[in-house]
């Protein structure tokens, strides 16, 4: 090679290396004006059961976060009021994460309280701060108060989906095969499903053994001239039925046991904010927990309960909205459970501790491997000195 060709080759190599260096820097940081924007930190995915055969979910209902230390608490004892603020909500979330060490956190709406949040984005980051700091995967849906600040519901869910360690989605992006593969419009923002895989090293390590459905139950609406709370629409139920049917059909073969244990379709859990109109019926039935206030549901019954029953895989539903209800009750074979009020700026009951709900799914132990889900438990933790554990119960188990 003569010196001229060598020199050209050297310059070309230097140019390529420079481009690679600049590209690497661009991928790790890029700039808008003078602001540095970080790439989102993602959790370890997929979601899966732990090696001990459990998957634990922390449900956080109704944080009602405002603007931090300046936002006063509601419905606490007079001795607590002077020093109580949103920071008590943050402290409770940090304590419960540390005490329970969940695998996943589900926020079921009214995460911020719009009228007390001058900057919705800032309030969201503060509200979800302990979850982000934990590095745990988490997801959220919206309630009826989140959009009352400076962002609409689509903007809120967009931001939530981009936050560190969030696995939230704005809406499903898949095509509907029943409509010729066309994109379908789904009401609301925050309708998505998350699949939880089997324990590492087990025969179902690459199979979904638990499904988590998240739905946007809306905020407020006018129905027949009367103002009422939002409800889950037919477009959302259509999507839900289709996803459930496709999932159950695809998993028939993968979940057939070779370990001598009978298997069933993977169970599912659902999460949304506003209770369905059948919940008041539980006042006359046996429940676990406390029924302390009238159910603030929609006047519209869109057939959510019937849809869940027909699907066959949803075993329990977790809601919020009514802060001083914290009970679980059974409707047509499906458990409906309130989270209980979590946040200190949301209304509550003086002397009645704020609380969180824990849901734990447990796998069946086969001869040689962890199998599918055997049972689903729940209990609550109170924000008292001992983080008291109450109302433990079995929601579902293989018979």
Walk me through the topology.
Elements (H helix, E strand, L loop, with lengths): L2 H26 E4 L2 E4 L8 E2 L5 E7 L17 H4 L4 H15 L3 E5 L11 H8 L1 H6 L3 E4 L11 H10 L12 E2 L5 E2 L8 E6 L10 E7 L5 E4 L2 E4 L4 H17 L17 E4 L15 E2 L15 H8 L2 E6 L8 E4 L2 E5 L16 E11 L4 E13 L6 E9 L2
Helix pairs in contact: 7-8
Task: Describe the 3D structure.
The chain contains eight helices and 20 strands. The chain has helices spanning 3-28, 78-81, 86-100, 120-127, 129-134, 153-162, 234-250, 304-311, and strands at 29-32, 35-38, 47-48, 54-60, 104-108, 138-141, 175-176, 182-183, 192-197, 208-214, 220-223, 226-229, 268-271, 287-288, 314-319, 328-331, 334-338, 355-365, 370-382, 389-397. The protein is globular, with a radius of gyration of 24 Å. The N and C termini lie far apart (79 Å). By secondary structure, it is of the alpha/beta class. It is 24% helix and 26% strand. It has a single domain, classed as Purple Acid Phosphatase, chain A, domain 2. It has an eight-stranded mixed sheet, with helices on one face. Strands 6-5-4-18-19-20 form a six-stranded mixed sheet. The model is unreliable at 25-32 and 255-262 (pLDDT under 50). Strand 7 and strand 8 form a beta hairpin. The longest helix is centred in the first third of the chain and has 26 residues, at 3-28. This is Metallo-dependent phosphatase-like. One of its GO terms (cellular component) is cytoplasm. The chain crosses the membrane at residues 12-32.
């Amino acid at each position: 090679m003569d010196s001229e060709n060598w020199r050209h080759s050297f310059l070309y190599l230097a140019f390529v290396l420079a481009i690679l260096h600049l590209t690497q820097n661009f991928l790790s940081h890029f700039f808008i004006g003078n602001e540095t924007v970080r790439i989102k930190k993602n959790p370890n995915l997929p979601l899966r059961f732990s090696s001990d055969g459990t998957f634990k979910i922390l449900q956080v209902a109704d944080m009602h976060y405002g603007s931090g230390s300046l936002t006063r608490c509601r419905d606490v004892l007079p001795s607590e009021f002077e020093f109580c603020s949103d920071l008590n909500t943050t402290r409770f979330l940090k304590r419960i994460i540390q005490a329970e060490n969940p695998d996943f956190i589900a926020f079921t709406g009214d995460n911020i309280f719009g009228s007390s949040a001058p900057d919705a984005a800032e309030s969201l980051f503060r509200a979800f701060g302990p979850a982000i700091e934990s590095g745990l995967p988490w997801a959220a849906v919206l309630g009826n108060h989140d959009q009352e600040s400076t962002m609409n519901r689509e903007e809120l869910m967009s931001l939530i989906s981009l936050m560190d360690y969030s696995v939230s989605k704005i809406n499903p992006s898949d095509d509907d095969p029943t409509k010729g593969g066309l994109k379908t419009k789904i009401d609301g923002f925050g309708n998505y499903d998350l699949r939880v895989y089997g324990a590492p090293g087990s025969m179902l390590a690459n199979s979904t053994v638990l499904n988590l459905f998240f739905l946007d139950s809306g905020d407020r609406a006018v129905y027949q001239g009367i103002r009422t709370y939002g409800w889950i629409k037919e477009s959302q139920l259509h999507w839900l039925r289709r996803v459930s049917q496709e999932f159950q059909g695809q998993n028939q073969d993968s979940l057939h046991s070779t370990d001598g244990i009978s298997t069933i379709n993977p169970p599912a859990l659902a999460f949304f904010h506003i209770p369905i109109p059948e919940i008041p019926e539980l006042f006359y039935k046996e429940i676990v927990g406390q029924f302390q206030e009238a159910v603030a549901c929609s006047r519209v019954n869109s057939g959510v309960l019937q849809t869940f029953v027909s699907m066959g895989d949803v075993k329990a539903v977790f809601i919020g909205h009514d802060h001083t209800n914290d009970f679980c009750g059974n409707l047509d074979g499906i458990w409906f459970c309130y989270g209980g009020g979590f946040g200190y700026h949301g209304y509550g009951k003086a002397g009645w501790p704020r609380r969180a709900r824990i849901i734990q799914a447990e796998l069946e132990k086969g001869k040689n491997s962890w199998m599918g889900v055997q049972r689903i438990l729940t209990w609550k933790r109170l924000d008292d000195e001992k983080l008291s554990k109450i109302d433990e119960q079995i929601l579902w188990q293989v018979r």
